[in-house]
Amino acid sequence: MIRKRAFRVGLALALGAMLAASAPSLPHAADAGASTWASGFHASFRLVDGGAAEAPGLRKAGIEIRLDPHFKTYWRTPGDSGLPPSFDWSGSDNVKAVEVRWPLPARFEDAAGSSIGYKESVLLPLRVTLANPARPAALNLKLDYAVCEQICIPVKGEARLPLGSGAAAPPFAPAVAAAEARAPVRKPAGSGAPPSIEAAAAAADGGSIAVSAVIPPGADPVELFAEAGQDWLFGAPALVKDEPSRDARRVTWRLAVDAAPTDARLAGLPVTITLSVGGTAIEVETRLDAEPKPH
């Protein structure tokens, strides 16, 4: 299954590379608190300053990506027909680490299969740790990402942004804060008020996993994604059980294993489950239990 997926993505990128080679990359004027736009084939991106964060030496920023109509780009786990973005921060000044947060994506079904990502535009919020809070800092990003309408097109660009040091919030601070609010909240399995993930288990035959959750009554729509590293691929969730009550619904979905490493075991596998219910999204890291065998 992995070989088939790799061939499809590789062929699409090879075709896309020929198209991208002739695409212009023209700079756009920069707004205050933002880098210039780095333009590629049907897409552009820039860095924006999100201002100071809660702790000394920590700052907020964002990567804003804009796409032409009908085009999409991909989430950190892109599905069976895309590639995730790659971030190179090595040219930055006085930056110790950069954490990329991910607003909740959408699932797309097309002739190439199922993919996960964003259409039109997305702002990826960043948490930037400075090496020395007393010194000026600048972000420098070399971004490799894929853009798709019918085939995947590789796009590359570079953007640089000095980070402000003043107490006043920069112009893009509200946009970065809004993007952070759209990123799932991290919480342990089985904890807190609904929505919460109760359990994730591996089927004995290795062909699927089951995810059980508690969600508020009447809450819709529901989005569910499972991740376990680049060699694993899980399909869209299929509803197995929905037990409503006055205070909550206990729901179980099954997700097919569409790709896996050779001789891999599901039981004990570390997974990340992202669940969104009625606009509230959570992200849970857990390990797959062994699903009980039917009697």
How are the SSEs ordered, and which strands pair?
Elements: H1 2-21, E1 38-40, E2 43-52, E3 58-67, E4 72-79, E5 86-88, E6 95-100, E7 106-110, E8 113-119, E9 121-130, E10 137-148, E11 152-163, H2 173-182, E12 185-186, E13 196-202, E14 208-215, E15 222-227, E16 233-234, E17 238-244, E18 249-259, E19 270-277, E20 280-287, E21 289-290
Parallel strand pairs: 12-20, 13-21
Antiparallel strand pairs: 1-2, 2-3, 3-9, 4-8, 4-10, 5-10, 6-9, 7-8, 10-11, 13-14, 14-18, 15-19, 16-18, 17-18, 19-20
Short description:
Residues 59-158 form the Thiol:disulfide interchange protein DsbD N-terminal domain. The chain is mainly beta and 295 residues long.
Fourth CATH level, the homologous superfamily of the largest domain: Thiol:disulfide interchange protein DsbD, N-terminal domain
End-to-end distance: 31 Å
The CATH architecture category of the largest domain equals Sandwich
Largest sheet: 6 strands, antiparallel
Number of domains: 2
Organism: Alsobacter sp. KACC 23698
Pfam families: DsbD_N
InterPro entries: DsbDN
Protein name: Protein-disulfide reductase DsbD domain-containing protein
Which labels suit this protein?
single chain; 295 residues; mainly beta; Immunoglobulin-like; 2 domains; six-stranded antiparallel beta sheet; six-stranded mixed beta sheet; 2 helices; 21 strands; 50% strand; globular; disordered N terminus
Task: Characterise this structure.
The chain is mostly beta strands and 295 residues long. The chain folds into 2 domains: 2-183, Immunoglobulin-like, CATH 2.60.40; 186-290, Immunoglobulin-like (Sandwich), CATH 2.60.40. 10% of the residues lie in helices and 50% in strands. It has helices at 2-21, 173-182, and strands at 38-40, 43-52, 58-67, 72-79, 86-88, 95-100, 106-110, 113-119, 121-130, 137-148, 152-163, 185-186, 196-202, 208-215, 222-227, 233-234, 238-244, 249-259, 270-277, 280-287, 289-290. The strands form 4 sheets. Strands 4, 5, 7, 8, 10 and 11 form a 6-stranded antiparallel beta sheet that branches. A hairpin with a 2-residue loop joins β7 and β8 (113-119). The longest helix is centred in the N-terminal third of the chain and has 20 residues, at 2-21. The chain is globular and about 55 Å long. Residues 1-8 and 10-27 have low confidence and may be disordered.
